[in-house]
């Protein structure tokens, strides 16, 4: 069974016209989704189910709340966002209205037991970017369970902040890089193509657009794609994040080098470029970035322990 990030599977979002319809969903043990409209002072989450209001008690808000391995901010941040849940039962509030008691934790436990626990290094899954920190991107890997992509695993081309590669709410594909008892680490760069696959999109003599990523004493690194950068001579007035028109002078696979000439420079990159995936499988054992004739060999072996 596959569990998707919250909000991705639109079929789970339903509005119920009566309590009986919701009771039927409970009897079928259905997984449902709805938008959180309120997080009250006790950190219970309230969702609108149509005929009735649903309440996810704080303790049922997420795996880890009970033992404090997950903080309450993980619940507060869900307001105005979709969350998944199962219906546990019904009760009446102080005004005599029927409320559905829901559990997000129950769905997350199913996700861990029936899906995430069965993943192995090299497996490729759907994820959704939840928030970005300087050190990496947090992603929803299923039912609102978070994992991390460290910044150095977002691409081969180096960036200063994950926001230069991704944005919050973005749906992406990721590969499981490392699996530990209570932690999973994912990677993106192995899905964005080898040096040759990216270099094949360019030809000597072309003028294309790139992004200035770093300025060194010996030259300027210009990113052409997330997994491909070339080197141009120093030029005054450039700054990291700036867009530039560059002339492709030469492409040298044996040295993994692309020589560029800066033709023009203009505004700062406004948002990350759309990602292009070069892997359409659900698992890879090994990924070799470098060309076979290159002296420097760069690869990821997912079978190594």
Question: Can you offer a commentary on this structure?
Answer:
- This protein has about 300 residues and is mainly β.
- Helix content is about 10%, strand content about 40%.
- The chain is built from four helices and 17 strands.
- The protein has helices spanning about 20-25, 75, 105-115, 195-200, and strands at about 30-40, 45-50, 55, 80-90, 100-105, 125-135, 135-140, 145-150, 170-180, 185, 205-215, 220-225, 230, 240-250, 255-270, 285-290, 300.
- The strands form four sheets. A five-stranded mixed β-barrel has the order 1-2-3-5-4. Strands 8-7-6-9-10 form a five-stranded antiparallel β-sheet, with no helix packed on it.
- Strand 7 and strand 8 form a beta hairpin.
- It is elongated.
- The mean pLDDT is about 95.
Sheet bearing the most strands, described? 5 strands, mixed, barrel
Fraction of residues in H or I helices: under 10%
Walk across the major sheet and give the strand order: 1-2-3-5-4
Distance between the termini: 27 Å
Number of helical regions: 4
Main features:
305 residues, mainly beta, elongated
Helix and strand arrangement:
Layout: H1 19-27, E1 32-39, E2 45-48, E3 53-56, H2 73-76, E4 82-92, E5 98-103, H3 104-114, E6 124-133, E7 136-140, E8 146-150, E9 171-180, E10 183-187, H4 195-199, E11 207-216, E12 219-225, E13 228-232, E14 242-252, E15 257-268, E16 286-288, E17 299-301
Parallel strand pairs: 3-5, 13-15
Antiparallel strand pairs: 1-2, 1-4, 2-3, 4-5, 6-7, 6-9, 7-8, 9-10, 11-12, 11-14, 12-13, 14-15, 16-17
């Amino acid at each position: 069974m596959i569990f998707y990030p919250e909000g991705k599977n639109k079929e789970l979002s339903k509005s119920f016209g009566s309590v009986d319809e919701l009771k039927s969903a409970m009897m079928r043990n259905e997984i449902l989704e709805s938008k959180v409209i309120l997080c009250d002072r006790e950190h219970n989450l309230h969702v609108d189910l149509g005929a009735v209001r649903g309440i996810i008690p704080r303790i049922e808000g997420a795996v880890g709340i009970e033992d404090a391995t997950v903080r309450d901010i993980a619940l507060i941040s869900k307001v105005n966002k979709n969350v998944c849940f199962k219906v546990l039962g019904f009760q009446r509030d102080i005004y005599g209205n029927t409320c559905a008691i829901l559990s997000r934790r129950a769905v997350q436990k199913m996700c861990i037991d029936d899906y995430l626990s069965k993943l192995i290094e090299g497996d490729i899954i759907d994820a959704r970017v939840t928030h970005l920190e300087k050190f990496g991107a947090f992603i929803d890997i299923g039912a609102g369970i978070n994992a991390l992509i460290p910044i150095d695993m977002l691409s081969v081309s180096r960036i200063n902040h994950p926001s230069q590669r991704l944005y919050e709410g973005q749906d992406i594909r990721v590969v499981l890089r490392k699996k530990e008892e209570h932690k999973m680490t994912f990677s993106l760069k192995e899905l964005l193509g080898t040096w040759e696959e990216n270099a094949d999109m360019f030809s000597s003599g072309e003028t294309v657009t790139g992004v200035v990523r770093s300025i060194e004493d010996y030259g300027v690194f210009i990113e052409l794609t997330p997994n491909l950068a070339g080197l141009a001579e120093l030029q005054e007035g450039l700054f990291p994040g700036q867009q530039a028109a560059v002339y492709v002078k030469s492409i040298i696979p044996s040295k993994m080098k692309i020589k560029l000439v800066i033709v023009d420079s203009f505004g700062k990159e406004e948002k990350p470029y759309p990602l292009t995936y070069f892997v359409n499988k659900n698992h890879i054992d090994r990924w070799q970035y470098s060309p076979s004739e290159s002296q420097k060999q760069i690869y990821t072996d997912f079978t190594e322990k």
